[in-house]
């Protein structure tokens, strides 16, 4: 049922490389890079929710930390935007530690509620601290500069092509790390405590600490995804921290199949592309989107990809 | 090896263990038998650290254990096969065993796994399958094998015979009996008093949160009160 690590990465790499052949216009590079950025955050959710069984409704807050780090650190700390993204990732991990530590000792839905509050807090700070963050109008983000370096080496890419390739590469690396984690002792501990915290404790897993590690790792994924979005948009607004964005990230993962990296990326693809297709329904677009999600969860509760694979296998036999 | 003095525990305001005293010597198989609801599982939960203790002392290998967190007890050499087995059903058999050796990162893990497969050959055949697909008896074998992967000096077993067909029950009790030859001390909690007492060195009888009777296994099996209440003869 599960694809091996190598097969998953190969499928993913092949899709990223081959897809542009079918792009009718340059605009699709932009759609593709947005999809990769969303997918990266969703792979983080696979680690937190798929492996460890914990739910966060505040991941947009970490995406915002990553995004605003790229806008603010170059101006105030005079660092390169790439260093700013790393600062954002470290800051996200620290904040995840501070938010998660008191909560993850408890069993239940506390993390979902507390992280929801954290996300709202971040978006309010971003909207109100106008002097620093630019408020609701947003703030400009400096150019990463990598595209110019590539051009010097003779690799000329349009802006959209560059961000497609770069985001795709980061997604591959992120997926590779997540798949390595799956088969590591820590990954087994997370999947074990997901099923039985008591059994995990009896074999020596510090359950509270393991959950905290998963929360911090997934916060870093969200943060890097926010940084990538900020750097390619060159402008960032507090919308990125909105709780709808948090819910979107979780929905993508659950819709596609939160247990596997490929499934979650599939969910991200559907929810990134579907709104583009559903524009034919005009003002009913949101209604249709909600309907599709409801039907998918009613008829395919394990997520789209595992259910589809199951159907295909069932027919093949 | 393990000694318990005046152990009390409560769920909310209701006390369910009213001062338990028991001891397990090195290399012994000791069983705690009693009816459903006597507090046997609560006792084991206290020993493994997942149930708060409201009074009394637990001492393990000469050191106090009462305030050691659950996940550190395996490092002291105390392993557990919890109530209802609690195997990781979505993980493969091999992953379950590897997680049993979570605190170790050395070459002996592979050897320990081979030993587990030698003890339970069926687990070798199913090593790459999800543990949820195993039968009840196989799951119980996996739960014991997983606990042994932690290289315990003392193993706590909670109702290993629960829900198994009689032939499997006999097989599981055989396995428990053989743990002695591996140098593992066993504390076995069981409703199946006859099966447990027939492989144990000593036994305790538990009723509504008290130890009411204790002695060698032979004496307990021969005791008319036990025969009437638990052995159905």
From TrEMBL, chain B:
Gene3D superfamilies: P-loop containing nucleotide triphosphate hydrolases. Pfam families: ABC_tran. SMART domains: AAA. The keyword Acetylation does not apply. One of its GO terms (molecular function) is ATP binding. Keywords: Amino-acid transport, ATP-binding, Nucleotide-binding, Transport. InterPro entries: AAA+_ATPase (IPR003593), ABC_transporter-like_ATP-bd (IPR003439), ABC_transporter-like_CS (IPR017871), BCAA_Transport_ATP-bd_LivF (IPR052156), P-loop_NTPase (IPR027417). Residues 2-233 form the ABC transporter domain. The keyword Transport applies. Belongs to the ABC transporter superfamily. This is ABC transporter ATP-binding protein. It comes from Microvirga terricola.
């Amino acid at each position: 049922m599960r694809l091996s690590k190598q097969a998953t990465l190969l499928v993913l790499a092949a899709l990223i490389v081959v897809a542009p052949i079918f792009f009718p216009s340059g605009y699709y590079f932009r759609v593709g890079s947005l999809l990769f950025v969303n997918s990266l955050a969703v792979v983080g959710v696979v680690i937190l929710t798929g492996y460890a069984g914990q739910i966060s409704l505040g991941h947009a807050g970490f995406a915002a930390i990553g995004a605003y780090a790229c806008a603010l650190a170059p101006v105030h700390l005079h660092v390169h935007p790439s260093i700013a993204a790393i600062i954002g990732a470290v800051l996200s991990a620290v904040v995840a530690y501070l938010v998660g530590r008191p909560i993850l000792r408890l069993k239940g839905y506390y993390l979902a509620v507390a992280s929801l509050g954290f996300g709202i807090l971040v978006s309010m700070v971003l909207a109100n601290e106008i002097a620093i963050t630019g408020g609701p109008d947003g703030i400009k983000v400096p150019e990463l500069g990598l595209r110019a370096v590539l051009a010097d080496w003779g690799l000329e890419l349009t802006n959209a092509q560059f961000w497609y390739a770069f985001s795709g590469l980061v997604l591959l690396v992120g997926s590779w790390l997540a798949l390595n984690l799956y088969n590591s002792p820590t990954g087994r501990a997370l999947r074990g405590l997901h099923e039985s915290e008591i059994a995990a404790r009896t074999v020596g897993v510090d359950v509270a600490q393991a959950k905290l590690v998963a929360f911090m790792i997934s916060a870093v994924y969200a943060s890097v995804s926010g940084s990538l979005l900020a750097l390619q948009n060159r402008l960032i607004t507090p919308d990125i921290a909105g709780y709808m964005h948090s819910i979107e990230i979780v929905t993508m993962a659950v819709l596609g199949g939160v247990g596997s990296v490929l499934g979650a990326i599939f969910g991200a693809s559907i929810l990134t592309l579907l709104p583009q297709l559903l524009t034919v329904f005009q003002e009913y677009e949101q209604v249709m989107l909600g309907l599709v999600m409801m039907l998918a969860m009613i008829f395919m509760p394990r997520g789209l990809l595992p259910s589809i694979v199951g159907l295909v296998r069932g027919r093949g036999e | 090896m393990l000694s318990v003095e005046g152990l009390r525990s409560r769920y909310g305001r209701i006390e369910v263990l009213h001062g338990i005293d028991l001891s397990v010597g090195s290399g012994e198989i000791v069983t705690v038998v009693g009816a459903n609801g006597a507090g046997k599982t609560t006792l084991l939960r206290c020993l493994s650290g997942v149930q708060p203790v409201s009074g009394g002392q637990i001492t393990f290998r000469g050191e106090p254990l009462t305030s050691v967190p659950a996940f550190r007890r395996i490092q002291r050499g105390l392993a557990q096969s919890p109530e209802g087995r609690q195997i990781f059903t979505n993980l493969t058999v091999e992953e379950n065993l590897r997680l049993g050796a979570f605190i170790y990162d050395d070459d002996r893990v592979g050897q320990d796994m081979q030993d587990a497969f030698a003890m339970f050959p069926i687990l070798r055949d199913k090593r790459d399958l999800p543990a949820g697909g195993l039968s009840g008896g196989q799951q119980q074998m996996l739960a014991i094998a997983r606990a042994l992967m932690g290289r315990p000096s003392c193993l706590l077993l909670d109702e290993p015979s629960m829900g198994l067909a009689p032939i499997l029950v006999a097989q599981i009790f055989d396995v428990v009996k053989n743990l002695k030859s591996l140098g593992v001390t066993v504390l076995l909690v069981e409703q199946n008093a006859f099966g447990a007492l027939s492989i144990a060195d000593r036994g305790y009888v538990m009723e509504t949160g008290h130890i009411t009777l204790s002695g060698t296994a032979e004496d307990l099996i021969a005791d008319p009160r036990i025969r009437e209440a638990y052995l159905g003869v």
